[in-house]
Amino acid sequence: MTLDAALLLLQHAYDPQEPVHGAPWLWFTIIKILVVFTVLMVTIAYLTLAERKISAWIQDRHGPNRVGPWGLFQPLADGLKNIMKEETYPDAAYGPMFILAPVLSFIPALITFAVIPFAAPLPTRWGLVDMSIADLPIGFLYILAIASLGVYGIVIAGWSSNNKYALLGGLRSSAQMISYEVSMGIAVVSVLLLSGNVSLSAIVRQQVLSGWNAFPLLIGFFLFLVAAFAETNRLPFDLPEAESELIAGYHTEYSSMKFSMFFISEYSNMVTASALLSTLFFGGWAVPFWTTANTAPWAGWKTLVTLVFFALKTSFFLFLYMWIRWTLPRFRYDQLMSVGWKVMLPLGLGYLVVMAAAVLSLDAAGISPVARWAGVVPIYWAILGALNIVLAVLVFFILDRGRIVSPAYGRLDADEIARLQAMSERPITPAQGD
């Protein structure tokens, strides 16, 4: 059985219900918009509290604990403070663009979540309701297109502030996002090779049949993870707002709710990137090792259980974002660009060629993506997983050896470094001290 045939069988077998149409579809869509974006905004507010709590835990501090029990009302207090604060407008700033920039950054960050399926379909008396706001057949392409618009808000914020630090932050962000978007797109092409579809729902169904993509696409997962950190301007790639160099980067001149809108955009992008990681590589809403919950006939309890598991997977990657921020130092800017163009791009292109050849060879050998050895292990995915482990060993232990992806390196050659070390080790005489 081919993968396309198995996906079609999974979608239609044992399921008499059709998707909702007409007026019920419109009402369900409106309800989903209101519920999803309300939950998303509340989640973003409490992610700020989670980050402060996690940083306090890592640094052996208490964190926010004065406003409400365990500090749970701290996000409400912060939001009220930002709403009540006075707006400041620098005299040198270009007013219309200065006001428009936070909006251009805020809106794309929110609407990118619209195509991500977050639970199994919900059966109703009018038909099946997809648990995504818009189940587009080009879901991932939509995310790439809309997410790339957010950089315009950052660049305009840096330029319109008429501040050299803000301008440098905006320019850094534009170069960084362009550099790593290429690697992110290449990493996802490997997922599309296996699923044969750019629809996120189809990618989830493919993983229900054959297992998570993280194992057979290990290098692709690594490339996407690194690119996701760079795309969201998070450590160790937070050069656009490096406090030690640029004060606050592109939002140096902003205050009150305009300042908060940039932070909401950053955390919303984190949520979207974490949800994408879960969807593309870890089965999305699918519950591991529980076929009954992942397949038709659908029921309300299946929708609820899959929603909980999707939230758990996404929460893990959100925790990883925060863990990395309070663990690793940031790159230098030249290192950031070198990793993007000298490491990520060649590695992604080479990996794509290898995976395309492997998939073509398996298809030519007649090995089906849904075939299992002894009824348990997917043969197709086991072969690709073993290939990725070999590639990981070659990339991280043999080819690199700390010379390319090293977080710090010197520009001097070996002779110059030896000369400077010899000078530092030379004893200082009293005459030299004078």
Description:
With 434 residues, this protein is mostly helical. It has one domain. The chain contains 17 helices and 4 strands. The strands form 2 sheets. A two-stranded antiparallel sheet has the order 1-2. A hairpin with a 2-residue loop joins strand 1 and strand 2. Helix 4 packs parallel to helix 11. The chain starts with a helix and ends with a helix.
Keywords:
434 residues; mainly alpha; two-stranded antiparallel ribbon; 17 helices; globular
What percentage of the residues does DSSP assign to strands (E)? under 5%
Helix content: 55-70%
Taking all Cα atoms into account, the compactness measure Rg is: 25 Å
Biggest sheet: strands side by side, in what order? 1-2
Major sheet description: 2 strands, antiparallel
Counting DSSP H or I runs of 4 or more residues, the number of helices is: 17
Query: Shape, please?
Result: globular
Mean of all residue-level pLDDT scores: 82
**Structural class determined from secondary elements:** mainly alpha
Give the helices and strands as they follow along the chain.
HHHHEEHHHHHHHHHHEEHHH
Instruction: Count all strands and give the number.
Output: 4
Q: How far apart, in Å, are the first and last alpha carbons? A: 86 Å
Contiguous low-pLDDT stretches (5 residues minimum) are 10-15
